[in-house]
Amino acid sequence: MKIVDVHTEVFRYKSNVARDLEGHTHPGPERDAAQTLVKIVTNEGAEGYCFGGDKQAIEHLVKPALVGEDPFYREKIWQRLKQWQRQSQLFSDRVVATVDMALWDLAGRYLNQPVYKLLGGYRDKVPAYASTMCGDEVEGGLNTPETYADFAEKCKKQGYSALKLHTWMPPVSWAPDPKRDVAACRAVRERVRDDMDLMLDCWHHYSREEALYIGRELERLNFHWFEEPMDEHNTSSYVWLTNQLDIPVVGPETAEGKMCTRAEWIVRGASDISRGGVADLGGITPLMKTVHLCESFGVRLEVHGGGAGNLQVLGAMGIPGEYYERGLLHPFLDYEKPAPWLKEIVDPMDGQGYVHIPQRPGLGLDIDFDYIKDNPVIT
Ligand code: LLH
Ligand code: MG
User: Fold this and answer.
1) Are residues 152 and 194 in contact, defined by beta-carbon separation less than 8 angstroms?
2) Which atom of ligand 1 is nearest to the CA of 228?
C-alpha cells in the first residue's frame, strides 16, 4: 500500500471559547473560527484522519515526505519528520503529532480495530479527572475560591472522582498570587471533603520559594499531585522542589525534547511522576516510547490533555497512568456537546467517572463529513 495524497480541509464553525494574551482558554462571545482536517489517502482506498495541524506545513512539507511511502511504516515516517524538525520552524511537535495520529487512524480503520488494541490493549475504560480552565474575573465563573468550590461540587455530582484546578494566571489582574491559589485549593477540599482526588496546576513561572510554599500547603490539604509551578526549562529548580516535597511533583508537560527530556528528568529526579501528551511529544508513537521509558524506571506517567490520541494511549498503558484529563471545563460551557464536526464526543463519561474508549476503528472519531463539506474556508 502506498500513500498517494495528504490533504487538508479547512472549515469554519462558531466558537464560544477565546484565548487570552498568554494563550489560556476561557469562555467568550460567539466568534467565527476555523478547524483543519488532515486526510491521508492511499492507492488501496484506505484513509486516515486527524483534526488540527497547519495547512501550509502539511501541504508543503509533510505531503512531499509521505507520498509514495507505505502508511504502515509509521516509525520510519516519524523519525524522518523528527529529523526535519531541526531546521524547520513550521514543523512543530503539534504538526508531527497530527500526521502520526492520522497514520494510526488509517491503520485502525484498515484493520478494523481501535488504535489502543493495535498498540496492545490494557483496559477499556479510564477514570477521568475534571480539569478546569484557568481562573478568570467573570462573575460566577472561576473568579473566587468559592466558585471553584461550587464547580467542584457540581463535578462530583456528575460522577468525577478527581478534579484539577488551573488557578489564576496573567493577564488576570490579581494573578499570580500563591496565597489565592492555596485559598482556592482549600475551598475545594473543604467542599468535596475526602471524596475526590485533587490536583493543582498553577502559574508556571513561580519562584522556588513560592512553589515550595504552595506545595507544602497542598500536602496539608492532602492533594494528589502538584503540576508545573515553575518554568520547566529550569530542571535544577524542579530537582530542588521535588527533593523537599512529599506530594508527587508531575512533569515535564510543555518542555520540548520529546522522550529525551522525560528521560533526563527521570535520571535527575526532577519530578516524581512524568508527563506528556500526544501534542507535546509529537504523536502516539513518541508517547508510547515515553510510556515504555517510564516503565523501565518504575515511574508513573500522567498523560497531558484529553482527546482521541491521548485516550487511545491510556487504553494501552500497562503502567499507571491513573487518570484521563477531561476538559478544559468551565461552569459556563457544555463539554458534553460534540464539536460541530463530530457526531459524538470522543470521551463519553459514565456516572462513576469512567471514560470509555471508543470501539470504532482507528482513533474512534465519529466525523460529520457533511458538516465539513458544507462549511469550507476557501484558502
Ligand atoms: O495554561 C492552560 O491554559 C492550561 O494549563 C493548559 O495548558 C492545560 O492543557 C494543562 O496544563 N493541563 O494540564
Ligand atoms: Mg498542566
Assistant:
1) no
2) 11
154 three-state secondary structure: helix
Read off the pLDDT of residues 175-232 as tens digits, 9 standing for 90 and up. Answer: 999 999 999 999 999 999 999 999 999 999 999 999 999 999 999 999 999 999 999 9
Calpha distance 294→263 (Å, rounded): 8
Report how far residue 318's alpha carbon sits from residue 200's, in angstroms, rounded to the nearest whole number.
25
Distances (CA, A) of 267 to 233, 237, 242: 16, 15, 13
For residue 169, which ligand has an atom nearest its CA? 1
Residues 6+ apart with CB under 8 A from 320: 300, 301
Does residue 171 have a cis peptide bond before it, meaning omega lies within 30 degrees of 0? yes
- Whether the CA torsion 9, 11, 16, 18 is positive or negative: it is positive
Grid cell, residue 323, equals: 487518570
Cα 117 to Cα 364: distance, rounded to the nearest angstrom: 12
Cα separation, 299 vs 252, in Å, equals 13
* Ligand 2 centre distance from Cα of residue 82 (Å): 24
> What is the rounded average pLDDT for all residues in the chain?
97
Q: Which residues contact 341 (CB under 8 A, 6 or more apart)?
A: 11, 13, 35, 37, 51, 367, 368, 371, 372
Identify which of 129, 169, 201, 225 to mutate to test ligand 1's pocket (most ligand atoms within 8 A of the CB): 201
> For residue 350, which of 318, 330, 326 has the smallest C-alpha distance?
326
The residue whose CA is least distant from atom 3 of ligand 1 is 24
For 167-206, the three-class secondary structure string (H helix, E strand, C coil) is CCCCCCCCCCCHHHHHHHHHHHHHHHCCCCEEEEECCCCC
- Cell digits for 234? 529550569
CA distances, 374 to each of 177, 250, 340 (Å): 46, 43, 12
Measure 163 CA to ligand 2 centroid, in angstroms: 13
On the question of pLDDT at 86 being above 80, the answer is yes
pLDDT of residue 90: 77
